[in-house]
Every structure is written in structure tokens, then in C-alpha cells.
Amino acid sequence: MIITSSKPYGVVKGLLRKWEKIGIVSCNSCARACETGGRARMEEIAERLRKDGFEVVDTVLVPMACNIDAVKKPDYQGDFLVVLACDSGVCALQLLFPNKKVIPALNTIGLGARDVQGNIFLMRKF
Predict the structure, then answer these.
(1) CATH number, residue 56
(2) Are the beta carbons of 78 and 23 closer than 8 angstroms?
(3) Sign of the torsion angle spanned by Cα atoms 41, 43, 49, 52
(4) Dist CA 123 CA 83 (whole Å)
(5) How many folded domains does the chain comprise?
(6) CB-CB contact of 61 with 28 (8 Å)
(7) Average pLDDT over residues 32-54
(8) Mean pLDDT of the chain, nearest integer
(9) pTM of the model
């Protein structure tokens, strides 16, 4: 799995514009396991952005953001796509949607492993 950490909310918010529509795309695989993605984190950031006056028009949970077929959704309404995924997922969205501003909301830390108790171990830092 890929280990990620969340960028500070203020950093992500500072890259957005209130007059632009915002879409949020969240990985439901590695990022969910790291608690930096998945449905709960996606809904949390969408709620915070809405409270701060941003127009969030899409919230899309994808099985794996690094899977090109999983993120091929031709009707993303957002001008900005806030991505809760590793660098691979961010690159996939940038490749597929070059006319949208793709904002990475996570830092990619490295390769990791997870045990049955849910503990995550960093195996190799990038």
C-alpha cells in the first residue's frame, strides 16, 4: 500500500477560488486505510469547504484513484478537483482531465504494510 498524510486544510483551501466550482475525488483503497481518504474524509473536507463559502459540486469516491478506468468519469462538474489520493491518483486525474485544476490534498510518504489490527508500518520512505 501507499502511505499518505493529509496536507493542512489551510494549504488546500488556499489553492482554491470561491468563484470556481469544486469537485472532490477520494481514493477508497490505500488513502482510506491511512484515514486520509475514503468516504468519511471526503465528506469532512466537503463540509468544511462549504462552511467556508466554496461551491462543492462533486464528491466522488473511487475504488482506487490510481486505476485509470476507475477515475474516468466524463461529467466531473468541478473546475478544481481536490484529490484525496497518493501522487499516482493525482497524476491519473491530471492525465485524464488536463483542463481542470487538480489539487493534491495529500502528501505521499512511501510504501507501507498493514497488519490485522490495522496498524500501518512504513516500509520504504519516498
Answers:
(1) 3.40.50
(2) yes
(3) negative
(4) 24
(5) 1
(6) yes
(7) 97
(8) 95
(9) 0.94
